[in-house]
Amino acid sequence: MVEAGQLLYVHLPQTGVDLQAFLEAKDVKDTLLIATRNEGKTAEFRKLFGKLGYEVENLNDYPDLPEVAETGMTFEENARLKAETISQLTGKMVLADDSGLQVDVLGGLPGVWSARFAGVGATDAENNIKLLHELAMVFEIKDRSAHFHTTLVVASPDKESLVVEADWPGYIAHEPKGENGFGYDPLFLVGETGKTSAELTIEEKNAQSHRAQAVQKLVEVFPAWQSK
């Protein structure tokens, strides 16, 4: 980790690196495998972890890996299933997140079913239409409160997994706005800003989103976890 030209923290692969190569290298990076095939989500993580010196891969780089069924009833259960299963299969350090939108008036739905709210294999647009339908009779923005939640799990073979969580509060708009982001971003009004998440730049989103907050928590505890 480098800040203001100062080397603050160096993370090395568990297998180590050649000393001479390390001393001569301008950039020594470890690989972090993100347990997703979603390129939009991967782009966010790549932005967040790139500055920490990580090369970020996703499951599209490993087409032969099996799909891990998200059978958990909580965000943590699903994130653990993905991270720990793929870490054991690949021997790599794997980060999995289970994230979702929780709408208060819907009792926390769509929650862990966010990606398949409109059915298995549903598109983002179909899920957004389903959500708007469910909220059709909720007219006041103040009654459409919601938050994005994320649970991050980092797993490594023969190591207890690291878990962090974060939330991003807001409201559900009456119609989609914005071209950036993915999932429910076009409907999610960020706090009291009046802007949807899809109207933010990726830099603005990465400064405040649920994933950004969770990654910040992860960065704070990661060195101690790695040293165990």
TrEMBL record:
EC number: 3.6.1.66
Necessary cofactors: Mg(2+)
Cofactor mode of binding and number, as noted: Binds 1 Mg(2+) ion per subunit.
Keywords, comma-separated and alphabetical: Hydrolase, Magnesium, Metal-binding, Nucleotide metabolism, Nucleotide-binding
One GO-annotated biological process of the protein: purine nucleoside triphosphate catabolic process
Catalytic center residues: 98
SUPFAM superfamilies for this protein: ITPase-like
Binding site for substrate: 36-41, 99, 182-185, 205, 210-211
Domain of life: Bacteria
Family statement: Belongs to the HAM1 NTPase family.
Name this polypeptide is given: dITP/XTP pyrophosphatase
